[in-house]
Every structure is written in structure tokens, then in C-alpha cells.
Amino acid sequence: MSQVIQRLRKLLREEELEGFIHYQTNKAREFVTLRYLSGVGGLEDSGILIPTDDDPVLFVKDFEGGRARYSSFIKDVRVAKTIPIDNALKFLASLIEEKGLKHKKIGIDDSELTVEIYSRLKRLDITPVAFGEEIRKLRMVKTREELKNIRKAVNITENAILKINDMLGSGMTESELAAEASFTMEKFGAEKSFVHVQYESNASVPHHVSDSTVVKGDGLLVIDIGARVEGYTRDITRTLEVGKIDEKRRRIKDTVKSSLDASLTMVRHGMPVSAVARAARDVIRQKNLPEPQHRIGHGIGLSVHEAPIIETEFEYKLQEGMVLAIEPGIYIPGKTGCRIESNVVVKREGYERLDANT
């Protein structure tokens, strides 16, 4: 039995629930709960039933049976005609009866279910109970297998950054450099999660979409990039120097680096996320430079941006096994920008840095 299912069942018992149900149509295929609980990505018109004290069942639409059986850690994979949706609900009702869950309290991920599916689940012989917050908390602490996939995504992402670094000075555009990075990630066996290459004035806009700007002259190049392995993504940002940067840009980059280092010294089990964010912001504030309007950091996993949010107004405490992306930045509107982002695993005493030191 997978660690994910074991941990979910423990939570279900604590809440005195008899099981968990999730179903997603093609309208919700970008959501990740089904992938998290089954190990299979890209499913649509498919669902899962996880009794607290019986074997879980993953049911998929007809042509997905072979892929699901090959990829899932769920042993009982069943094929069903799930279109139209009435067929899916009839099949789910039969599973509920088979597992003895009629008239029982069953957890649902209310954060991901469409209104259509939720309203139909309420018509079945169960009592659906909102469980989305518990799923979110479960996902924050990674299993060994999840960490394995994230580590691989880290290595591939860094290969893509090295590729861009090697091509600086060649007169390529932001878009061309982004394309080379995307190709590198795919060549090493990952999917591209995202790539943003941003030069000078474009770097002053977080998440600027790479365009035809030629990367030449002297300035700062921000690369925000992530590879995806088995659904698990990496989110890293590096600021590279093009040509010879001036003292103002050197001060900005050095401050961002110091801001990141200060925040990392606060990372350990039990530390409030507010303390991590405050340490980063204090460094920038003391240098009389503009603080970033975006959050200082966030969790990563199946989604690029996951809980917990690392910011001063949040008091959630870090837990061992969380994977964080910490990303302080400084932006001078219309002129330049700098952001450095590192991925770390929270440990009992401190952290493990997954990417190379900047």
C-alpha cells in the first residue's frame, strides 16, 4: 500500500469517516487530487473510491485501462463507460454498495469537485463530508517517492539553465533561449512545466512572457523555469549576468542573494512561515531597495504553487518533509529586475537544498 493511501486512511479514521471519493470530468483534468491518490496523470472522466478499511478502487474510462494499470499504485483498476456522466454515477453507486459504504460519511475534496459532480454525489446513498483542507495538508508533506521525482526534476531543470548560460552572447532572443531550455528538459526525459526568460526591463515584470527581445549588451537576465517528472514539478529562478553589469545592478543582485540566504537560515521544522518571509524582507528593506509585491515563497509538488504560502501574514508552521520554493526579488520598473529562487526540503534541524548554490 502506498504511503499516500496509508496517510489518507489515518486522517479518515481520525475524522470518523468511512472512506473517500473523488471523480473528475474532462472539465477538471488539470486538477491534481486524482493523480495524487492514484499515481496516474492526465485522467479525465475517471474517479477513485478509497474505503477506510478495504482496498481502494480506481475506475477509468474505457480506453485508459491499460495505461492506468501500468502506472497506478492502486491494484484494483477497473474500466467503465463513464460517458455520459450518468453511466459514471451508476458505476460509482455500484462500488459504494460493493464496499458497504451506503449511508456512510464519505470524505470529498470540495476544493476540486465541480458543482455538477458535487450535486450528483449528494444524490447517492452517502453523506459527503468536505475533506479538501485535509487533502491540502496531506500534500504538503512529501513521501519518499514524491521526493525522488522532485529531485529528478531539479537535476533536469538545472541542465536547462546551464544550456541557456552557455548560449549567452549569441544574440538570441528571449523566446529562442526559452525554446532551447524546453528542448533540453524534454531531451532529458521531463516535461516542460514552464519557462520564462526575461531580460532587463522585461525582468522588472515578474512572469513576463518571453518575447522577441534580443539578449545582448550589459544587463540582468532572469530565468524562471521548471521541469516536470511524473507530475512533480520544480520551480527555480536564476539571474544571470549578460556582459558586464554596473554597480547598481550588482548591488541589487547581491542583496537578493543575501535575502535568500537570510530566509534559508530560518528554515526548519516548527518555524512559522512568517519568520522565513520576514528574514528575507528585512534584508531588502535595510538596503532601502523595493520589496517584492509577490510572496517570498510557497510549497511545490504536483502544482507549481502549493501550500504553504511563505509570507509575513501567515503563521502556519513548517513541517519536516515539506518542499519549499523561496524566491525573494527586487524589481526596478521599466529598467531591470532580479529574482533568485531555491528549492529546499524542510528537515527536523534545518533544511536540505535541492539545487546548486547560486
Question: How would you describe the overall organization of this protein?
Answer:
This protein is α+β, with helices and mostly antiparallel strands. The chain has two domains: 3-138, Creatine Amidinohydrolase, Chain A, domain 1 (3-Layer(aba) Sandwich); 144-353, Alpha-Beta Complex (Creatine Amidinohydrolase), CATH 3.90.230.10. It has helices at residues 3-14, 33-38, 65-71, 85-98, 115-121, 132-140, 144-167, 174-187, 247-264, 273-286, and strands at 19-24, 46-51, 57-61, 76-80, 104-108, 126-130, 191-199, 219-229, 232-233, 236-242, 297-299, 306-310, 323-326, 329-332, 336-339, 342-347, 350-353. The chain has a six-stranded mixed sheet with strand order 4-3-2-1-5-6, with helices on both faces. The protein has a five-stranded antiparallel sheet with strand order 12-11-13-16-17. Strands 7, 8, 9 and 10 form a four-stranded antiparallel sheet that branches. Strand 5, helix 5 and strand 6 form a beta-alpha-beta unit. Helix 7 (144-167) packs across helix 8 and helix 9 runs antiparallel to helix 10 (273-286).
List descriptors.
single chain, 358 residues, Creatine Amidinohydrolase, Chain A, domain 1, Creatine Amidinohydrolase, six-stranded mixed beta sheet, five-stranded antiparallel beta sheet, 10 helices
